[in-house]
Amino acid sequence: MKPLILLHGALGAASDFEQLLPLLSPHYELFLFDLPGHGQNKERPSKFSIPLFADALNDFINTNHLEQPLIFGYSMGGYVACLLQFQKPVFSHIYTLGTKFIWNESQAQKEAQNLDPKSLAEKFPAYTNALAAKHGADYWDENMRLTAQMMLALGKEAALSTTDYSSIQSKIAIGLGDKDKMVPIEDAIQVYRQLPHACLDVLPMTQHPLDRVKPELLAQRLHYFFHL
Question: Which of 99, 115, 191, 214 could join 148 via S-S bond, C-beta 3.0 to 4.6 A?
Answer without folding.
Answer: 115
